[in-house]
Design brief:
Elements (H helix, E strand, L loop, with lengths): L1 H25 L2 H27 L14 H29 L7 H29 L2 H30 L4 H28 L6 H14 L5 E10 L2 E10 L5 H19 L2 E9 L8 E2 L2
Parallel strand pairs: 2-3
Antiparallel strand pairs: 1-2, 1-4
Helix pairs in contact: 1-2, 1-4, 2-3, 2-5, 2-6, 3-5, 3-6, 4-5, 5-6, 7-8
Length: 292
């Protein structure tokens, strides 16, 4: 994933150059807003690259559970940068609203901006595929931001074209302000999702149901599993529960059951840490997962 994050920095710089060129050609405040968001894209791509490098470090004495949460910090930073960009765009929109100006060479600027938008769309699709495959919060945050940027840029392109065709100059700062509001919403949503990861949210309900199913199917010889807890940490999943076995079962047999369950869960979840506390049948709570 690190090479994908490094490529994201190069793509973000290229898109920034194109969008800045489109703004410089036309003088459009809406295209300025679009270019300013690309500055955030560059900063976010750099933050994602650093976070992915840090998250890949193995556990150590100070971080026995690894460094995977570094990616969530990257996503929070990206959300904060998005919000700052939105506020700057609103400031420029208000200034342009008070003193609107005609656009220069609108067709050429629109073509340049359209090329940049196409590059962003293609790269966002790739980041979604790689981020989901690797369960990387940093890459997925970057992909969501780029997708929001693509939608925003599409609206800006249509709006700037209308300004050029109709000569209604106040449409330009209005579009910039709408762009800022869309960016602001995207940034706050991204920060909310990232904070959820930092707060050790449980796995989605469908994933939890699958975990329970695998435990029930692979813990043959045990009685039940209860007090199950799960959490995400970047691309890693942590699962822990109590497994009740017959009182007469040997430690070796109980250990074999744990190994079987752990292997099944890791095959399903990928990067997973499984903690199983074995208890005798007197500790059964008659709830949780009944073993098939």
């Amino acid at each position: 994933m690190e090479h994908v994050a490094a490529a994201s920095v190069a793509v973000a710089l290229a898109v920034l150059a194109l969008k800045a060129g489109a703004w410089w050609i036309t003088g459009s405040v809406a295209l300025f807003a679009d270019a300013l968001e690309s500055v955030v894209n560059v900063a976010a791509a750099v933050a994602a690259l650093l976070a992915i490098r840090l998250s890949a470090l193995p556990p150590d004495a100070n971080h026995p559970y690894g460094h995977a949460k570094a990616e969530y910090f990257s996503a929070v930073l990206e959300g904060a940068l998005i919000i700052v960009a939105a506020l700057l765009i609103l400031h420029e929109s208000w200034a342009a609203w008070q003193n609107p100006r005609p656009l220069d060479q609108a067709p050429l600027g629109l073509v340049v901006s359209a090329v940049a938008t196409g590059v962003n769309a293609a790269w966002a699709a790739l980041l979604f595929r790689r981020g989901r495959a690797g369960r990387s919060p940093a890459l997925l945050a970057d992909a969501r931001h780029l997708l929001a940027d693509v939608v925003t840029s599409g609206g800006v392109l249509v709006g700037v074209a209308l300004v050029a065709l109709t000569g209604i100059l106040w449409l330009d700062p209005l579009l910039a302000a709408l762009t800022a509001l869309n960016i602001l919403w995207s940034g706050t949503r991204l920060m909310r999702e990232s904070v959820g990861g930092l707060m050790d949210e449980a796995v989605p309900a469908e994933t939890l149901a699958r975990i329970r199913e695998l435990v029930a199917r692979n813990a043959e010889g045990a009685i039940e599993a209860h007090d199950m807890r799960t959490r995400h940490s970047g691309r890693f999943t942590f699962v822990e529960f109590h497994l009740v076995v017959p009182a007469a079962m040997t430690v070796t047999d109980a250990h074999d059951i744990c190994d079987r369950v752990e292997a099944a869960l890791k095959a399903e979840l990928g990067n997973a840490t499984i903690t199983i506390h074995v208890e005798p049948e007197g500790k059964a709570k008659h709830r949780g997962v009944l073993v098939l």
